[in-house]
Amino acid sequence: MLIYLFAYLDRLNVPGAGVFQYISFRSACAVITSLIIALLLGKRIIQFLRKKQIGETIRDLGLDGQKHKQGTPTMGGLIILASILVPTLLFGDLENIYVILMLITTVWLGFVGFLDDYIKVFRKNKKGLKGKTKILGQVVLGITVGLVVFIHKDIVVREKILLENGEPKMEIIQGTSQDEPTEVFVTRDVKSTKTTIPFLKNNEFDYADILWFMGGKAQRWSWIILILAVILIVTAVSNGANMTDGLDGLATGTSAIMGTTLGILAYLSGNIVYADYLNIMYIPYTGELVIFMSAFIGGTVGFLWYNSYPAQVFMGDTGSLSLGGIIAVFAIIIRKELLIPILCGIFLVESLSVVIQVSWFKYTKRKFGEGRRVFKMAPLHHHYQVLGYPEPKIVTRFWIVAIMLAVITIVTLKIR
Question: Can you tell me the distance from the alpha carbon of 55 to that of 66, in angstroms, rounded to the nearest whole number?
Fold first, then answer.
């Protein structure tokens, strides 16, 4: 909202008002504001939750230090949500369709997660929201995001116009009388279902190619593939973050690392100079997403102040579902969703460990009469706990792996 106030002040020639047009300045304001909100609001919310005795009910898994977590305040995801939403509303461009999509994602999945926590805490139902209901909420978001990405007029990719010989079309721009003429590429904004895919020569993949057998009609029906992909990604990453939220600071820290990476990718994709240098898709207006992601980073780091070992508060599904959904939708709208298996590798292996454990247990029980396990316990972080690793060591090492995966994700833009 402040962007409109400062734009008005700039028109009145108020000194310093023009600095608000810079994304870097507003991003800095967003990250500082979100940190302050998380630190100040966090303390008060924790006190309120303790007063109302809104604590986590811990299943006895026989793990070291588990009993000490009993009664720790939960639903701390409200701290993260407030730290993201308030700075974005203050410093973001609320007419930007990408920012609007991220706000919808945050509020919607925050609401779904809150319902789950509410049922667990206040209704004393350990199962919480039904799994099918959670999935339905994620599917509804996926359909909404997919349709908006495909239909909205402002969601475009700026491409170079190519000549018949494959060379980019150029034109001469005559500057002022003192400037030399400049040769620039001729571009156009197009609706596209293209996305970034790592390690291939052109670094691009079009969802319409999956419908190659439809010939000229493939592009017309590519929205179906796009929406299915969005639903799958949102559901997988959101649930992956939920499964990762099992140790103090694990989901929070890894999410902050992933968010930082996505913020860098959004800045590069939304800057025509860097996009041209890296030979990646230039997506107009996505630079504004850096403000949102700055608030996301500030919120998660600020929450980590209270969530680090030993945790004073847990985020609950209010936070974990939102964090995963935000990362998924953000990656989708900057067209980097096919990098998620690398960037969100921690979420991926945590989810796979559960799938492998359950599938193998059921298979061996059916075949041998008793279930057998691949891991000591799933998700994977509990496997290392059973092996005797201290909780802080497990979390720190997972953070290190997340940083390595983040670096690899960025490097893939040049490895083809």
Answer: 14
Residue in 318, 316, 259 with CA at minimum distance from that of residue 290: 259
Mean local confidence (pLDDT), 30-55 = 87
CA pair distance 413, 210, nearest whole angstrom: 23
Judge whether 332 and 149 are in contact, CB under 8 Å.
yes
Q: Is the dihedral of CA 387, 388, 391, 397 positive or negative?
A: negative
Q: 31, 101, 88: which is closest to 297 by C-alpha?
A: 31
129 band by pLDDT with thresholds 50, 70 and 90: confident
Count of C-beta atoms within a 10 Å radius of residue 190:
11
Q: Is 70 helix (H, G, I), strand (E, B) or coil?
A: coil
Average pLDDT score, the chain:
89
Which residues sit opposite 194 in a β-bridge? 206
Give 85: exposed, middle or buried? Use CB within 10 Å, 0-12, 13-18, 19+: buried
- pLDDT of 64-87, one tens digit each? 666 677 778 888 999 999 999 999
- Which residues, including other chains, have CB under 8 Å from residue 323's CB and lie 6 or more apart? 80, 241, 251, 252, 255, 300, 315
pTM of the model: 0.93
pLDDT class for 181, splitting at 50, 70, 90? low
CA angle 392, 395, 396 (to 5 degrees): 85
Query: What is the C-alpha to C-alpha distance for residues 118 and 235, in angstroms, rounded to an integer?
Result: 21
Burial class (CB in 10 A: 0-12, 13-18, 19+), 126: exposed
148, amino acid identity: V
Tell me how far apart the alpha carbons of residues 230 and 130 are, in angstroms, rounded to a whole number: 22
Please state the rounded mean pLDDT for residues 282-303.
95
Count of CB atoms situated within 10 Å of the CB of 239: 22
Question: What are the beta bridge partners of residue 171?
Answer: 184
